[in-house]
Amino acid sequence: EETKRSLKAHSWRGVYEPLHTQLLVLHINVEAQHCVWYGECGESEKVPGKKYNCNYTGPSLPLDPKGYDLLTELCPGYDYGERRLCCDVNQLNTLKGSLQLPLQFLSRCPACFFNLMNLFCELTCSPHQSRFMNATKFNATKINSTNVLEVEYYIGKNFSNAMYNACMDVQAPSSNVKALALLCGKDAKDCNATNWIQYMFNINNGQTPFSIIPIFSDVPVSGHTPMNNKTYACTEGLEDGSGPCSCQDCAKACGPKPVPPPLPPPWTILGIDAMTLIMWISYAAFLFIFIGAVLGAWCYRKRTIMSEYGPILDSNNPLSININASCCETLGERFENALRVLFSSWGSFCVRRPTLVILGSLILVAASSGGLFFMRITTDPVELWSSPSSQARQEKDYFDSHFGPFFRTAQLIITTPLTDTFIYSPYFGGSDVPFGAILDKDILHQVLDLQLSIEGLIATYEGQSVTLKDICLAPLAPFNNNCTILSVLNYFQNSHAVLDHVVGDDFYVYADYHSHFLYCVSAPASLNDTTMLHDPCLGTYGGPIFPWLALGGYDETNYNNATALVITFPLNNYLNDSVRLGKALAWEQEFIKFMKNFNNPNLTVAFSAERSIEDEIDRESNSDVGTIVISYAIMFIYISLALGHINSCRRVMVDSKISLGIAGILIVLSSVSSSLGLFSYFGVPLTLIVIEVIPFLVLAVGVDNIFIIVQTYQRDERMPQEELHQQIGRILGDVAPSMFLSSFSETVAFFLGALSNMPAVRTFSLFAGLAVFIDFLLQISCFVSLLGLDAQRQEGNRLDIFCCAKLPDGQEEKKDSFLFQFFRKIFAPFLLKEWVRPIIVIFVGILSFSISVVNKVEIGLDQKLSMPDDSYVLEYFKNLSMYLHTGAPVYFVVEDGHNYSSPEGQNAVCGGVGCNNDSLVQQVYGASLISDYTTVAFTPSSWLDDYFDWVKPQSSCCRYLNASGDFCNASVVNPSCVHCRPMTPSGKQRPEGDDFMRFLPMFLSDNPNVKCGKGGHAAYATAVDLRPKGAGVGATYFMTYHTILKESPDYIEALKMARILADNITQTMGHKVFAYSIFYVFYEQYLTIARDTAVNLGASLAAIFLVSAVLLGFELWSAALVSLTIAMILVNMLGVMWLWSISLNAISLVNLVMCCGISVEFCSHIVRAFSVSVKPSRAERAEEALAHMGSSVFSGITLTKFGGILILALSKSQIFQVFYFRMFLAIVLLGAAHGLVFLPVLLSYIGPSVNKAKVFAANKRNAGTERERLLNY
């Protein structure tokens, strides 16, 4: 029993004692429910203009009815019964002023702002203050009251964490950063619930007039119960009807984070690159079939078989043989004969009437070349690389016409050879912060000296002085005329004094430039840092300096580790104002001159201006003039000397053809000038590519034809009773069809290349096609007449050049040239030996390799290649890719016609509360979450969302004079200024209809200030194209940035992804939206260049096939072999491009089109010579064709070009070295190898059978003549 009673007593005590404790605490709390302060007293020492609250420990007091509306506005949802509070109207007004910036940035998310207001309303006015507040420091005032200097504020951890979680994702649209970065005193990623509240209550933040010490706990502490009011998550709506926060401001409302699609795996078979494996297998199969076919043919030939010429060769009188030629063969022979007769007659006429022909040619050339007076040379890169009808060009024109052209820039990237880093230890605690050498104060002073020197530069334009202020971008002009300078020195107001500003005493430094820098990189739009310096971070031009634009070489967001400073001077660009544009160009020129002469041992400066690239390309072109002249001089000298066939030393000056060679060169150049002149008459502009490449191309084509005519004449024997004009006419009848075949094929191929969308390719193709055809016409007319005159000179033993002098008559033995004898007696017989001909497998192997790497040729143009080796811009490009962390701005442009005044139109675009989850801003925001895939780096700046925040009645931003309706800036103190919208439920909604347009112009003209950070003038003045007379909103843009882009593939991918995103937005909105960035016009060509290359070259090959088929006398197989060989050369060129790191772009595409043309020269003459040969077998026909045409092709193209090409290797221009020296060399070597080795061997295997009609006609023509004896011999 005793034990039971003892246990019962203990159990009651266990129940009673906790209950007693709770009742006691409740009794204490009830007694303690009194105020800590009431009303305002003395001026704050820390924050001038703000006051301390008066110490008061009595019960709460009724609020003056004048403050009811203000209380409802600031603290909605709180019912304090009879409105008995611990604050008066003055304190409510102070609270409202203090919360203006948080209101403007956080009210985008109603739950976030509600929780924040909860925190401050309880602090300021709660009738139960003493439950969670404790005043700890006081001082007396002159008016017998006591100031509260410090309070402790007990806050529940649950509340603080919930408040932070609701606000952590809220965006600041104009700054492309999270709002907490502007309100937490540090970077958003380093902000948390604790340090955010500590910062807001810190007396050093420039806003808090007295110290508030937050103490975080969820259980009672020292007799105080922490404030743990109800909070709302950002996914929840409020009781007043406000909806949940948008996805952009609340990650939890978004659902799962978007996941980029996986990269397509490389195409492999058994772990080996598929193309490589397929081509190896194909090549092995070819070898198997080829070896089998060769062995089979060898065994078959052991038996006696009849030659393909049997019916002809077995006859002693071919004229009596009736050949059963096919209809196609007969038609081909007749066409061939018609060409022969036509050209023979024309050649004879030209030799008989040289004066008429030459004079007529000169008149026509002079008339055509007269167009050069109207010549325009395009150096504008946009005109050069972007078609006016292309998507990027049209979008650029749309952007420029609605928002003005993209600004010009002058930029410095500054590093230091010093390697010392130093540690900054904050006085008020916190971990040590390492600083890079470039952020040393002495270095910063030297950089500031440089920056100020640049600001002071004075250029001269047409006798007028031009300074930076005359041309710079000043977004707040005329209220603030300071130039935009994106520089870390703008954190210090571009002032040596501010940079040296220090707060401390004799023992410690409390704050200096280190602490200011660390604050500003986390809150660049701040007007007052939280350190004891209280210096602004906002730049002198009125806008923020984002650290990712002004610093380089840091890791993640540790800006203190930066190894480079980036200073950017944005300059105004002018669309149709040559005078102001001229001033900008003059200042840029002065800037470049100054920077080239700048020297500081502690600074390494890479620099560039907007005009730099164009200037350097011009300089490059001028510096390469010498190289080009030497290259052409070598070719001219070779041509002049090689044309002559010297039989003996005595007749050197008689047999040489220097004057004829010079005349031939002048004809080539005349054809170029005629082509340029004719197109200039029609206003077609020239490009540097045309000027640099076309003479090379026409020289190759034209000189080849000259060698063919002259060498055929030199090898020919004049028949009995045949006069000179008849001989040259007969020779022209033999060779002109071949010349016509090659020239006309090239002309048609080039003109088809003009269908390209790329201006550079189209212009080149037009000029080249016409130049080649004019060259052919001049060669079969003017040159033939000159050849006749030269032949007469030679037969009269007159000296070349000095034609009045004459050698005594003497009999000289006529000998063939060394090169002709080499081809006829050594090279051709050797190549076509039975055991040598399988060399064809090497060419097929090379082709297989080239096909396997075609898809691996890099697309694009490394901008570094466009600069000379010694250009200062190269160092700039190198530093750009090494140090910069942000790419170019990208604008998502909503075209004119969207209705922003309707809720539906607003929801389709905006990113705040109530906006569609697939709105424009939300989709770009979603893309920024996977920036590695989309290349979109940040949330877009949204004028519409900032406008909604700016126009809210709770904000002090939107006010107007009651009498006149004129706009009142938030900084204006005038009782006549009233809020734009009433503090009513409807007034708190977004403006619609007429209200929307009424206040929008005010927003776009409002400069941001301390009381209103949302003014739209600085950020959005150019982003909204307002229609005249307030008729509505036209085109608008939403800006963000690309991720850092270093190589051509990065730029191409960025363009592609931005367009995909813009197309998705267009489909969602039902209204046209496009993405625009400054580089799109240059890189758009690469989206389709692979297809364009295939189409251009395919069309050229098709044209060559058709022309060849007709002009070879309807021999389809011969035309097919020509096209096949040229296709092989082109594919092998792509293989060389991969091996030699030559990317595919407009320049290389021009070269490939030219390669197609030159390849015709290498192939068509050989094939035609094969088709008209009357030898008994394919091998012999191929040998004869190679012997007769090979030497002319080799000397006319290969040797002519080789010397000139080698000189290009000495060029300073990297473009010349890569795209001209390497590609031209490859074109000549591959063309010679295929035309002089592969094609004859291929013809010996599978060349077309003899055209019986042609053979019969040839035998008939030659019957009974000396030519028959020679042919039989």
UniProtKB/TrEMBL annotation:
Just give the chief location class: membrane
Sequence similarity:
Belongs to the patched family.
Tell whether Transmembrane is among the UniProt keywords: yes
Q: Describe the reaction catalysed, as an equation.
A: cholesterol(in) = cholesterol(out)
Q: Which residues form the SSD domain?
A: 624-789
Record membrane topology:
Multi-pass membrane protein
| Gene Ontology biological-process entries | cholesterol homeostasis; cholesterol metabolic process; cholesterol transport; intestinal cholesterol absorption
Protein name according to UniProt: Niemann-Pick disease, type C1
Membrane-spanning residues where?
Answer: 277-300, 356-375, 625-646, 658-682, 688-710, 764-789, 835-854, 1095-1114, 1120-1140, 1147-1167, 1187-1211, 1223-1246
Subcellular localization is given as: Endomembrane system
Q: Which PANTHER family match?
A: NPC INTRACELLULAR CHOLESTEROL TRANSPORTER 1
Quote one Gene Ontology molecular function term: cholesterol binding
Which keywords label this protein? Cholesterol metabolism, Disulfide bond, Glycoprotein, Lipid metabolism, Lipid transport, Membrane, Signal, Steroid metabolism, Sterol metabolism, Transmembrane, Transmembrane helix, Transport
Kindly give the Pfam families that the UniProt entry links to this protein.
Answer: NPC1_MLD, NPC1_N, Sterol-sensing
Q: Supply the SUPFAM superfamilies for this chain.
A: Multidrug efflux transporter AcrB transmembrane domain (SSF82866)
Its gene is npc1
One GO cellular component assignment for this chain's record is:
plasma membrane
